[in-house]
Design goal:
Elements lengths: L7 H10 L6 H9 L3 H8 L13 H23 L4 H26 L17 H9 L10 H15 L2 H23 L2 H24 L4 H5 L10 H5 L9 H4 L4 H6 L8 H21 L9 H26 L3 H7 L5
Helix pairs in contact: 2-3, 4-15, 5-6, 5-7, 5-8, 7-8, 8-9, 9-14, 14-15, 15-16
């Protein structure tokens, strides 16, 4: 169990690391760059420069962004009293890797090729170990409830060849795992943040399900338990216009978080606006921890801020590579740390 009074030193270290985060002026320069090459040159002047290659950077910036986030995770893990706080932000990447490996396994059985290039080193389980475990069917010692989940996914594939169901099983397992880990830590602020992430994912899923006309019974299976608004309450929103959702769940913080998102008739614009609002909401849930010099949530706030910074950088670079509109790109950026 973590004790908040043990976090004074860790928070002081994080305060020192904050100076390496990009400020508004640096993002403005990235937005004003003429093209991706210019944006990468500006990015090379920041902490990200240590991971940007000298050549071929246009094609390899994703690897540089991942390397920077991994470096931050490793640095935090070296001085945080309860390393589970850092792992809590990395569990999602373990589940991503399991998805990649299972899809590759299914693809090979169908005469296709492996796609190990889609694996990430950001998970808590070394990728080489995970590959060996799954290929040898020796995954009984994997963490996060993965043994039973992998078994269920393999059984489903053998019977139904339903990749959507495989993804649904793993997504549900991932949120159940991070909720379980947060409760074991016995830090209310940490659990509150995890609940906010579950609420956010549920709202995001519900909007996509509504677009595709999925019936309520099927849609309910894609919603995760453990948030502040239960799946049964959320599923009642499915037949309602999106503009009424915030009012219907106004008793919960997530209702206020989506109240400013307007449906102007274009789904792509709506989902982008909603995802930004939800990411900002998850930040806001733990932002007050920065006023405390010993709150464990400071670690989550910094890591989430770093992830959102990288998401913003990737948004800008993708826009530069595709000749996107500068102001439209600006509107997509998440709030900073």
């Amino acid at each position: 169990m973590s004790r908040s009074e043990d976090y004074g030193y860790a928070v002081a270290r994080i305060r020192a690391m904050e100076r390496l985060l990009l400020d508004a002026g640096q993002f403005q320069r990235l937005l004003e760059a003429d093209d991706m090459g210019g944006a990468l040159k500006i990015l090379g002047e920041t902490a990200y420069g240590r991971n940007l290659p000298d050549t071929g950077a246009d094609e390899r910036y994703d690897a540089a962004l991942e390397a920077e986030l991994l470096s931050v995770c490793q640095e935090l893990r070296a001085f945080v009293p309860d390393k589970t706080l850092v792992d809590l932000c990395r569990i999602q990447y373990d589940f991503h890797n399991v998805k990649v490996l299972l899809k590759s396994l299914f693809n090979v059985k169908s005469g296709g090729k492996k796609r190990w290039d889609l694996l990430t080193g950001l998970g808590t389980i070394p990728t080489d170990d995970l590959i060996a475990n799954i290929e040898s069917e020796d995954y009984q010692l994997l963490p996060w409830g993965l043994p039973s989940l992998i078994t269920a996914c393999l059984a489903n594939w053998e019977q139904a060849r339903d990749i959507v169901e495989v993804e649904r099983l793993l997504d549900g397992g991932m949120f159940a795992a991070i909720l379980r880990v947060s409760r074991e830590m016995d830090e209310p602020g940490v659990t509150k943040w995890v609940k906010a992430r579950i609420d956010s994912e549920n709202i995001r899923n519900l909007l996509r399900l509504k677009r595709f006309g999925i019936d309520a019974a099927r849609a309910l299976t894609f919603l995760h338990a453990g948030g502040t608004v239960g799946p049964e309450a959320l599923i009642a929103l499915l037949p309602e216009p999106f503009d009424g959702w915030a009012r219907a769940i106004s008793h919960a913080d997530i209702g206020a978080a989506i109240a400013g998102v307007q449906d102007e008739g274009d789904f792509d614009t709506l989902i982008v606006s909603l995802e930004k609002a939800l990411d900002d909401y998850c930040r806001d849930v733990i932002s007050n921890a920065r006023y405390s010099q010993n709150a464990p949530e400071n670690i989550l706030a910094y890591l989430w801020g770093k992830e959102m910074e990288i998401k913003n950088i990737r948004t800008v670079l993708v826009s530069k590579g595709g000749g996107g509109d500068r102001e439209a790109t600006r509107r997509m950026l998440r709030h900073g740390y």
